[in-house]
Amino acid sequence: MxxxxxxxxxxxxxxxxxxxxxxxxxTFALTEKKKSKEEDIxxxxxxxxxxxxxxxxxxxxxxxxKDDCKRDVKRAILGQIPYNNPITExxxxxxxxxxxxxxxxxxxFMDKFKVWAQSEHGCYLPYYGDVGxxxxxxxxxxR
Length: 143
Fold this sequence. Notes:
This protein is mainly alpha-helical. The chain has two domains: 1-34, no CATH class; 36-140, Orthogonal Bundle (NinB fold). The protein is 52% helix and 7% strand. It contains five helices and two strands. The chain has a two-stranded antiparallel sheet with strand order 1-2. Helix 2 (44-61) packs across helix 3. The longest helix is centred in the last third of the chain and has 19 residues, at 103-121. The radius of gyration is 19 Å and the shape is elongated. The relative contact order is 0.13. The mean pLDDT is 89.
């Protein structure tokens, strides 16, 4: 199994799994997964931009909660991820989490988000360096 040590919940899951293997005196391998630069978690610039975009879309659609808008945008563009719930032993759906995306995954999502907002809803979302980016920063940087 692969655990992301940046995520507190996954760290705890890893500890529980490790203890379980030790307690049953199992033979196991413990390795570190090396990451390439593309596998690194999103950049600071991506993080700032995507969160401003969610704020822009929340205002555009009239959401009171930016988190609700974020959830709905991700579902509209990416859908949901099927996973096996180990407690219920049923296949369930969960939402994508942008904070767990790699640089390339978030870049791909942002490209889709930008096209979706413009083509489906007529809402312009500028990247860093695009016309209107600085105005968006001034309006949404602290939201």
